[in-house]
Amino acid sequence: MVSDSHPLFSALCRRFESRLALSQQEAHAVRSLTAVPRRLLPPGSSLDVEPRRCELLLSGLACRYTTSRSGRRQIIAYLVPGDFCSSDICDPKVLGYQIGTLSAVMIASLPREGLTQIGARFPRLSATLQDFTVAEAATTTQWLLNLGQRDALERTSHLLCELFIRLNCVGLTSANGCELPLKQTDLADALVMSPVHMSRTLMKLRRLRLAHLLHKWLTLYDFEELKTVAGFTPTYLGIRELPRAMPAIPVSAPTLPPREDTGARPLLASGAGGGSGRPC
Amino acid sequence: MVSDSHPLFSALCRRFESRLALSQQEAHAVRSLTAVPRRLLPPGSSLDVEPRRCELLLSGLACRYTTSRSGRRQIIAYLVPGDFCSSDICDPKVLGYQIGTLSAVMIASLPREGLTQIGARFPRLSATLQDFTVAEAATTTQWLLNLGQRDALERTSHLLCELFIRLNCVGLTSANGCELPLKQTDLADALVMSPVHMSRTLMKLRRLRLAHLLHKWLTLYDFEELKTVAGFTPTYLGIRELPRAMPAIPVSAPTLPPREDTGARPLLASGAGGGSGRPC
DNA sequence: CGTAGCCTTGACCGCCCTCAAATTATGTGG
DNA sequence: CCACATAATTTGAGGGCGGTCAAGGCTACG
User: Fold this and answer.
1) What does the pLDDT read at residue B94?
2) What is residue A48's DSSP assignment?
3) Rounded-to-integer distance, Cα B160 and Cα A176, Å
């Protein structure tokens, strides 16, 4: 196993740093907090939470979900590295949902006392942990709005924007893309649409030269336009937007699919042209 | 103005008592906390929150809502007496929504320090206040599920069940009904459907002899069946179910609309005309 | 008694679901 | 490296829930 300070497993540190600059002591405290035994889970496994522990996701993607009477799965929240699978605010025992992995994941099980102790020693960390919880609730509210007032294309765009920024916060993106080990079914169950329509919608995003999800890699051809389509304002995530350097790497022509302006959306007709360097 | 211990304004006390039995000192502390100047707002007014204060709803109904790009209002949460319009977890400034009144409301503006002090003196109250926040987040999650996996009839049933139980917690229900000063538009904006379809759905509930909303009064003809239709499990509200005595008063025949199993028959549904038996 | 807002009802239409089949990835053993 | 099996994605056709538009009825209130 790699060392505890390996970038692959410092997701929590990086998440803190997306909101404030950690002092050396603070960073050390967080790192030592996560220096606990880890376990690796395969995709599609379920994660049950022990009472006095906080399960921290270090790598991979997971989700909170419920299964409805009709047997359909609805994903309530995605969990990305640096997220806590369980916390006070979201006790699966009480709220009646489950936690499942969507890819291979690495998980650290922290004792809850460790978190309270670190909070007592470092008030700034305590406040930020609280902010994490607030952002979590705010994200649920945004999903509610997403379901309520956006159609399939806008919903999908919104979710991709959110995931890209959250992954960016923990340093898991390139300039205009990121690894996203999700099946179309996983997206469909979060956006509450059928897999068939999910496929059609991703196809449309691709043809509009906005985004492309292929082979578990998400490419955002035009992030600004995607945000416009989605009506995405990242305020609710509680972070400064795109804190990490995003060099403007223009999308090379060969990687672009053939242009196609499906006339259905006059809103998008002009913006995507050129694929020129988009400053981030 | 009535005295501070008047039942009309002891909503917060009653809400605490739906979760635990208050000692005399605790009850006194809560009552003195809410013994502050109040203001009465007309329906349709907006409520802006001052930074270091907690606005407590004492009577009437309010909501949190946003306005989408298309100008449509979406209600994110209903606020019933005993609810805090603003708290740490839901700072409108950050989250970008507004608070509006749906009926005439009475509001008390508590200093935030008062809440923290009372929490320090009475750990049980502090824990319960925390539980309120958790229940709030859980309710948002339930609304997400409501939108995602239920059709119009089920969604509406679910919302009516929730509102009835929450109002019951603060002693604002009769045996099988409660005052509910909501327009159909207000329900439609929460359930994300058009006012036209809201009308049709309420009509269907009425014909199915499940529930009847008329003249700002909600009658539940068959609460158990309504819960079944909605797939409603009140666990997420974090309360013991129906703590207050609910004497089984059978609905008298004249108040029932003509029976109709499904919407198959466009039978004239004027049967509820005599608003006679309004049990209070 | 008249006006304005709210509710109801009907007609038509579009987004998205379901079913079904073809096509393409992914993984496994030879 | 190829053949095969399985899963995932794509594409088409048809239908239903619920949206929009429009008109009429009911309530409330001055």
Assistant:
1) 67
2) P
3) 45
